[in-house]
Amino acid sequence: MGKEHLSHFRRCENGVMAVEFAMVAPVMILLMLASVELPRAIMTGQEVSRAARTMADLVSRENLASLDDVYAAGAAVADLPLADLGIVVTAAGVYSESGALVAKVCSIKTSNATGLAVKSVIGPAPPASAEAGARYVMAEVGYTYKPAFTIIPALMRYRFSNTVQWPVRKGTTYKGKPEIVLPNGKPCE
């Protein structure tokens, strides 16, 4: 009787589909969740970039007594909570030092982030402002991503950040150049 049961068990095909489904279902579920999470993450990165561009553009237009409206506009364009954004807005000047053009911080304003100190070197002058005495605005926005699903470990606590350098459009003229002075800041020296 034992050999008959084994022989019958070997030929039996009942439940094969259930086993196949049990093997394929987790993979299909992971693919479905990833097809939601990855586009959402890409869109969040684009929103952070859009917020930085918006803030740089708004600040470059004129001196403002407060940047609260600029921060709110950046958060609205990005469709992200303002409290979750790390924002650094910098008014910078370009100086000639040892034959090289160097950008330095003239005034700075932050929200939920830390920035460089006034007179700190930012780095080489951006190509659009590559002349001594040039002035520009720089907006940096950072956001720690909050995934809807925790299936992709690389996205857990991933930080999107974007820095935009924008030429001064209007501003107060100091030393013959239009310049933006951020709230509680001073013009470039």
Task: Give a description of the structure.
There is one protein chain. This protein is elongated. The mean pLDDT is 89. Strand 6 and strand 7 form a beta hairpin. The strands form 2 sheets. The protein has a 5-stranded antiparallel beta sheet. It has 189 residues and is of the alpha+beta class. The protein has one domain. Pfam families: TadE. This is Pilus assembly protein. InterPro entries: TadE-like_dom. Keywords: Membrane, Transmembrane, Transmembrane helix.
Name the beta content range: 25-35%
Q: Give the overall pLDDT as a whole number.
A: 89
Spatial strand sequence of the major β-sheet? 3-2-1-4-5
Query: How is the biggest beta sheet arranged?
Result: 5 strands, antiparallel
Low-confidence stretches: none
How much helical structure, as a percent, in the residues? 25-40%
User: Can you count the helices?
Assistant: 3
- Number of domain modules: 1
Span of the ends, CA to CA: 100 Å
The H/E string reads HHHEEEEEEE
The best one-word shape is elongated
| Radius of gyration over C-alpha positions, nearest whole angstrom | 27 Å
Strand tally, please? 7
Helix/strand/pairing category? alpha+beta
List keywords for this structure.
transmembrane helix; TadE-like_dom; 5-stranded antiparallel sheet; Pilus assembly protein; elongated; membrane; alpha+beta; single chain; transmembrane
Blueprint of the fold:
Blueprint: H1 2-11, H2 16-59, H3 68-78, E1 85-97, E2 100-111, E3 121-124, E4 135-144, E5 159-167, E6 172-174, E7 177-179
Antiparallel strand pairs: 1-2, 1-4, 2-3, 4-5, 6-7
Helix pairs in contact: 2-3
